Backbone:
């Protein structure tokens, strides 16, 4: 009768299973959290660069060649002024890393910007074989609306 009231004892080998699994599970959880934080930082840097480059492209598309407008009334972008605006906007921006491979392509009615920002990893740099820096590429285009 006493045996039915008291819980049955487990074997001694089952007690250590939880003791081994909890630290292993915590290690996996911390590693996944570190990867998530680093990938989120790269994504946020890409969004930040895209936002700044989009505003720079809009401003650059507004750099019209006033001399050409006076001569024949055509709306054309002054490409040198557009490049200067893009470079100035990107230099003034508070980006999480340096801008790599900035390319500004300009035609009479369009400005195209391609760039990458270097983002240092916070946690993945400690992993052997993982890069210390990742890059986030963007491509933005703005047109003159006639």
Residues:
């Amino acid at each position: 009768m006493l045996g039915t009231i008291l819980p049955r004892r487990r074997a001694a080998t089952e007690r250590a299973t939880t003791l081994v699994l909890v630290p292993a599970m915590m290690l996996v959880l911390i590693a996944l959290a570190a990867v998530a934080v680093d990938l989120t930082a790269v994504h946020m840097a890409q969004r930040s660069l895209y936002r700044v480059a989009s505003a720079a492209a809009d401003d650059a598309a507004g750099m019209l060649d006033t001399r050409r407008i006076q001569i024949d009334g055509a709306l054309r972008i002054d490409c040198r002024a557009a490049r200067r605006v893009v470079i100035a906007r990107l230099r003034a921006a508070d980006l999480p890393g340096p801008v790599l491979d900035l390319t500004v392509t300009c035609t009479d009615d369009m400005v195209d910007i391609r760039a990458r920002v270097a983002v240092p990893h916070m946690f993945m740099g400690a992993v052997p074989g993982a890069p210390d820096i990742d890059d986030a590429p963007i491509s933005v285009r703005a047109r003159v609306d006639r």
